[in-house]
Specification:
This protein is an alpha/beta fold. The chain has 11 helices and 10 strands. The two termini are 15 Å apart. GO terms for molecular function: hydrolase activity; zinc ion binding.
């Protein structure tokens, strides 16, 4: 459950392991002490919630998350779901949408991997770059079924800001209310018109790769947010950094989790985004979207 008294990072990873898939040890984020220190720092700066979107087969570790909450004071909203086709084990391919949905429902209602940690969001369910595979479409159907059974919101992964409209169409086809959907990674391409179109359809969008300047520079993220502000659409935007690597941590020379509040927010303010609009994106929108609602 979300703590409404502070800021929320809407799309993060605190324990993730994609190192085998990417053949790179840097992609195993699992260093407890540096991560815990960064969570304490975030809490001191008014960030109370991390939406942790690592799901099955991505290196999720519920006990690690429980320990972080205990030791740092951060509130973690854990996820259930399946990522993208490249990461699916045979079980996903062999299961029906109904069977996959039941695994999500169990993690929401009973707990994750035998722990007391329950999933608070269906995330990050993803699609491949430029395509939605049949198994990805099946996972989206399963996510819709889990939503209808539990009332939890759905947070998606788009590969390099592609297939957002198609994700919306899929979830709409399965009767998911679009105000319970947030489309992820909308900030990796210069596409303000497409983002506005998605918002107009009723979903939320995430600018959630803040600080990843090698993919897309933050100055252009700011410019797109200014455009959305001029159209009065920031009430459908949430912010995050999608930290996934050891090298992203301060202890390892990276910018760290606090970059969003320490550096990116001042960039927004300097560009004319108001303090109230920052509060909207980091506090009010997540409070509304991630609030647990009945089925």
């Amino acid at each position: 459950m979300i703590n409404p008294n502070g800021y929320t990072y809407a799309h993060e990873h605190l324990h993730i392991d994609l190192s085998g898939f990417k053949n790179n040890l840097d992609c195993r984020l699992d260093q407890y002490q540096p991560i815990c220190a960064e969570m304490r720092e975030l809490v001191s700066k008014g960030v109370t919630n991390i939406v942790e979107v690592t799901n099955r087969y991505m290196g999720r570790n519920p006990q690690f998350l429980l320990n972080l909450m205990r030791d740092s004071g951060i509130n973690v909203i854990a996820s259930t779901g399946y990522y993208t086709d490249s990461f699916y084990p045979p079980m996903v391919r062999e299961s029906s949408a109904q069977q996959l949905a039941q695994t999500m429902i169990d993690e929401i209602e009973i707990g994750i991997d035998g722990t007391e940690l329950k999933a608070g969001v269906i995330a990050e369910i993803g699609t491949s770059e430029g395509v939605i595979t049949p198994d990805e479409a099946k996972v989206f159907h399963a996510a819709a079924l889990a939503h209808h059974a539990t009332g939890l919101s759905i947070s998606t992964h788009t590969s390099f800001s592609t297939m957002g409209l198609q994700q919306i169409a899929l979830l709409k086809q399965h009767a998911v209310p679009l105000d319970r959907v947030v489309i992820g990674h909308c900030d990796l391409k210069e596409q303000p018109d497409l983002i506005m179109k998605m918002i107009d359809m009723g979903v939320y969008v995430q600018f959630d790769t803040i600080g990843k300047n090698s993919y897309f520079p933050d100055e252009r993220r700011v410019a797109m947010l200014v455009t959305l502000a001029e159209h009065g659409l920031l009430d459908r935007v949430m912010l995050s950094m999608d930290i996934t690597r050891r090298s992203h941590l301060k202890a390892n020379g990276g910018s760290g989790f606090s970059y969003l509040v320490d550096s990116f927010v001042p960039m927004l303010l300097a560009a004319g985004i108001s303090h109230d609009q920052v509060e909207m994106m980091l506090r009010h929108n997540p409070n509304k979207f991630f609030k647990t609602q009945g089925k």
